[in-house]
Amino acid sequence: MDIVGVLAVAFWAMLPAYVPNNAAVLVGGGPPIDGGRTWNGRRLLGDGKTWLGTAGGIVAGAALALGLNTIHSTVSDAVAGLPEFTLVAAITLPAGALLGDIGASFLKRRTGRERGAAFPGLDQLDFVVGSLGLTVVLAPGWFFETFTLPVLAVVLVITPVLHVGTNLVAYMLSLKSEPW
Ligand code: CTP
Ligand code: MG
What we know:
mainly alpha, 2 strands, 2% strand
């Protein structure tokens, strides 16, 4: 597969993992997952991780994956090799992304960072690690068929770039209070 094909597969396969964080920004709010609980005087996760944002993000990512399945045969005429999403992968990609993000908030609070503080590196990769991690465990067959080594390499390069870019746009549109 040429580099354009690899890029297309990487982007297509990761779209259901890219959308949930942004969807969570839009629908988030209400009771936080940690219920306000603290550990050693600091919030377990913080007010930035809510049930509504998490559920909305998973639904948005899974709906997107199933939506991509419906246009798969049409798009495949132009770009070969794009995967169809199994139902499990359609759920683990967004759910894992948000789990990674929640894990990052847990680490941020343990290291004394307030809600919204940046943690360079972790901010850009938490959701990739969560998404790929949950998917390789729960949908290993689909994972290894889709994420060949070149595709994985491209995912690790384009994801931080896209993440920084979309967050900057969300910040400029006043959807997010920080540009990261
Ligand atoms: N959000 C949510 N539930 C999630 C993830 C995000 O409700 N599981 C919403 C929250 O409104 C959050 C916003 O999306 O404030 C931005 O997400 P993020 O940058 O991950 O949270 P922060 O507020 O920056 O908090 P943290 O420092 O814990 O990352
Ligand atoms: Mg943040």
